[in-house]
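Task card 7
Instruction: Convert sequence to structure tokens.
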Amino acid sequence: MAPYQIFTDATADCNLSWLQSLPPVSIIPMRVEIGGREYSYGPDGNISAEEFYAQQKAGKYAVTSQITPAQYIQWFEPALWSGNDILYLCFSSGMSGTFQSARVCAEELQEKYPDRKIICLDTLCASVGEGFLVCEAAARQAEGYTLEELVRWVIQHRLEVCHWFTVDVFDHLRRGGRVSAGTAVLGTALQIKPLLHVNQSGELAVMEKPRGRKQAIKAQLVRMEQGWKPELGKTVIVGHGACPDGAQALQQAVREQFPEAQVRLAEIGPIIGAHTGPGMLALIYWGNTR
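Output:
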């Protein structure tokens, strides 16, 4: 039985400290253009989340690009040369064509390496939710799951990763087509902080329109109360886009309401941040309120 390597992409927003005690996970960087300049985000990239949000706050908008088949080959082939099979846990197909590009690459490489297994899985997750699932998968690999066992586990549990996001400004959602121009103007005037989630198709959808940060956090906690399943795991992720004070407030609220929860903080990087803007807060947990 061949060893296997887990891959993911920079949308996963994995906190690298979470992975230190786990089998190595290869994170494929992604490109983001901001202010007319192209950057690479991920390991060995040339922009940090902090630098990215500083530019956004200065009024510069960002555009992201999906990973090309050529990039996938560049990352996958060395693992195949080394005799490893590959499990790629990909950014949701509901938000990007990245998964299809990965499958094109896998088919090409499979012909060149017929004795190797190259499995691309659509996580139907995004940002710190995707990172949460990747870390949980790596933990199962550490426990000794075979490639086939881990594939079955991911497919069985990926729709139990619940994502609830709130954003501070409408501009980036408007530019990405998530809300209309009229909704953005009205929402800004009324201090609405839209509550979004990643649905069962892996798409980002607006669910509620609470007014003000406190009400937005309350709405996130209500969703968690309705569907948290600590029997699947007690780790809860609070993610933020250049919003440490809000993240600490949400973290404290989760700890007070759910004392069993093991809360971790994570930064939301540029790939998702390009579409949501600074001030985003995310609450990720195992549950049935997907």
